[in-house]
């Protein structure tokens, strides 16, 4: 009895699906970790029974041979999800010092945001330390910390109490806690000696080399994102314009960049074939591609492209037929095996969803597939590929970002032939910079190319109807995904039943959107953990804006019809003596040295909140004095009615894209 040929060509489709199923059963359904044991035991027992030939399996049940490995991989998915499950507050005891390594460092308009890999907890006075692995988003003042720095700070960690979208983002990135600490409580204890720290250092050197060149600062920031995945220097308006124009993928190092690099390496290393074998060239290409993946930070799209490159070149070297779907599933399997929470990351889903759609749908949906019209087929693929990628990724964008670009095609058609030329020119310029040669004419070409791209993106993003705000139930996304899979099976496996299944799933997706209520969250205000300013965050239909009020002063602002006062200085004798100042929120900063009695005398506030810059003793003193039920905790967002505008003369609104 043989395995069906369709399954034997791409076995990792089934295996990766089973792994994803185990991860979803643990995280979404909530099955306990011990459920993996009976699943694995059932798979092993069934395999032994089938191997012994104890049952005579009829021909219609020949696919039963796939069940034992699928059960084992399902159990493996639950096991890796259990190992990487998020920690709770009970896992972080009081009175400990947290030690970790900075993974990312981003400078914002109101301080620094650090992503830290927590490695251990050390007692402040006595007791035993403990090893611990968790991700932390740490807000602090502007500090000179780089990725790869080892730091120590008080383990005053909170669970991410924020909007559902941002909570999903943190979960997918492996972040379990948030913390807000002043810079003087964060100590740099050394430098990590691992390869990731080395890659971060090389990225910083590359960024410094580009910034010191003859390039315009905006072009240098774009090249840092294009070549090294370093996007800290990009302006929020630039990111927004690129996203609205449908070319945000250019700003993130992805499979497109890896493909351009592989083509260049295969051409440049062609002389190695003079040795009589192509194996040295392919092995060197694989090595350099993985070096590039490490250099850019091992993001999911880059790892996916690197694994697929290895599978493709290994098949050529071993003279074995390759399968693009098999290579894609192997890449997903490897990533999820080490980071199962990536299944909830938008970057992972967009990368693999778009690539799977291009592999399975682009060529079959393109007319003239015959060999005699191969050139015409290739020209039509130029249009089909971005359209198919959009069809397979717009639902993910709608669920995660609640916005879908509608005018995505014009710039993508221009970038397809022009971006490789621009990347090769940028690599040549970077190589010359490393050799001490700063070519003015190459810098002028790069500046002109980026300026044209940016102007085009801004022009398209300013058009009416360039993007649509969409709020979809998550169930609609799953039904749509199942429908697309059925249509892909219809094109590859044939059969009328796939058409019926695909149409049925699409109808279920439409019915879900119509019948279920829209998941639009209520408008909320919350106090963010910035140190160098008072930042009040407004979330309204997925649009996040931040009201910034400066430190060391008495500042007044309006947001969503709520009056907000930030007190970070001593009260003047004339303030509120005749009539107390009324407000909805009174936020007290560390610059205020007075007592609570003066606050009650000068202000009439619905809620008094401590700013994160307050010391622990001062915060406890304020909370004890204001323990009445009328005061709100600074961690809880206040739900507000949706109101339109904010007087621009009294406040400054800054668009944030976290």
């Amino acid at each position: 009895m043989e395995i069906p040929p369709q399954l034997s060509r791409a076995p990792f489709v089934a295996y990766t699906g089973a792994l994803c199923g185990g991860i979803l059963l643990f995280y979404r359904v909530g099955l306990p970790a011990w459920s993996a044991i009976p699943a694995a035991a059932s798979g092993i027992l069934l395999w032994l029974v089938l191997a012994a030939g104890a049952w005579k399996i009829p021909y219609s049940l020949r696919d039963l041979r796939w069940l034992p490995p699928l059960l084992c991989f399902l159990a493996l998915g639950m096991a890796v999800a259990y190992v990487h499950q998020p920690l709770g507050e009970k896992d972080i005891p009081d009175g400990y010092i947290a030690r970790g390594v900075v993974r990312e460092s981003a400078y914002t308009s109101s301080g620094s945001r650090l992503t830290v890999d927590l490695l251990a907890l050390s007692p402040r006075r006595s007791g035993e330390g403990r090893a611990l692995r968790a991700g932390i988003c740490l807000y602090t003042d502007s500090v000179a910390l780089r990725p790869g720095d080892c730091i120590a700070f008080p383990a005053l960690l909170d669970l991410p109490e924020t909007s559902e979208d941002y909570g999903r983002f943190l979960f997918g990135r492996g972040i379990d806690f948030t913390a807000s600490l002043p810079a003087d409580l964060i100590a740099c204890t050394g430098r990590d000696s691992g390869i990731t720290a080395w890659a971060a250092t090389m990225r910083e050197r590359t960024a410094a080399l580009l910034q010191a060149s003859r390039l315009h600062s905006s072009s240098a920031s774009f090249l840092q994102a294009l070549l090294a995945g370093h996007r800290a220097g990009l302006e929020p308006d630039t990111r927004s314009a690129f996203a609205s124009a449908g070319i945000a993928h250019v700003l993130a190092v992805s499979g497109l960049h890896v493909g351009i690099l592989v083509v260049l390496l295969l051409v440049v290393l062609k002389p190695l074939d003079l040795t009589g074998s192509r194996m040295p060239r392919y092995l060197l290409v694989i090595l350099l591609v993985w070096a590039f993946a490490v250099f850019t930070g091992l993001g999911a799209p880059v790892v996916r492209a690197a694994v697929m490159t290895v599978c493709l070149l290994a098949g050529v070297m071993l003279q074995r037929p390759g399968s693009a779907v098999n290579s894609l599933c192997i890449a997903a399997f490897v990533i999820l095996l080490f980071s199962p929470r990536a299944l909830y990351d938008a970057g992972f889903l967009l990368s693999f969803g778009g690539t799977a759609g291009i592999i399975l749908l682009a060529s079959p949906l393109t007319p003239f597939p015959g060999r005699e019209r191969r050139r015409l087929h290739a020209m039509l693929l130029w249009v089909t590929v971005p359209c198919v990628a959009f069809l397979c990724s717009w639902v993910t964008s709608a669920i995660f970002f609640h916005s879908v670009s509608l005018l995505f095609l014009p710039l993508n058609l221009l970038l397809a032939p022009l971006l490789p030329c621009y990347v090769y020119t940028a690599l040549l310029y970077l190589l010359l910079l490393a050799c001490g040669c700063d070519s003015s004419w190459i810098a002028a070409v790069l500046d002109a190319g980026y300026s044209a791209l940016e102007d085009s993106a801004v022009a398209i993003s300013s058009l009416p109807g360039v993007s649509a705000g969409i709020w979809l139930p998550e169930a609609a996304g799953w039904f749509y995904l199942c429908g697309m899979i059925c249509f892909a099976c219809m094109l590859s496996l044939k059969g009328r039943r796939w058409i019926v299944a695909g149409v049925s799933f699409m109808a279920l997706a439409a019915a879900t959107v119509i019948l279920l209520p829209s998941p639009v969250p209520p408008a909320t205000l919350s106090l963010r953990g910035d140190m160098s300013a008072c930042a009040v965050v407004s979330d309204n239909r997925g649009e996040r804006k931040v009201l910034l009020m400066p430190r060391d002063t008495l500042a007044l602002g309006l947001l969503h019809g709520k009056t907000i006062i930030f007190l970070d200085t001593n009260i003047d004798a004339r303030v509120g003596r005749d009539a107390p100042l009324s407000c909805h929120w009174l936020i007290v900063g560390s610059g205020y040295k007075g007592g609570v009695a003066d606050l009650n005398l000068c202000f009439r506030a619905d809620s008094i909140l401590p700013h994160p810059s307050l010391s622990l003793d001062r915060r406890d003193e304020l909370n004890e004095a204001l323990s009445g039920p009328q005061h709100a905790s600074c961690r809880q967002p206040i739900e507000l009615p949706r109101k339109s505008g904010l007087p621009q003369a009294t406040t400054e609104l800054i668009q944030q894209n976290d």
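The chain has a mean pLDDT of 79. The first strand starts at residue 96 and ends at 108.
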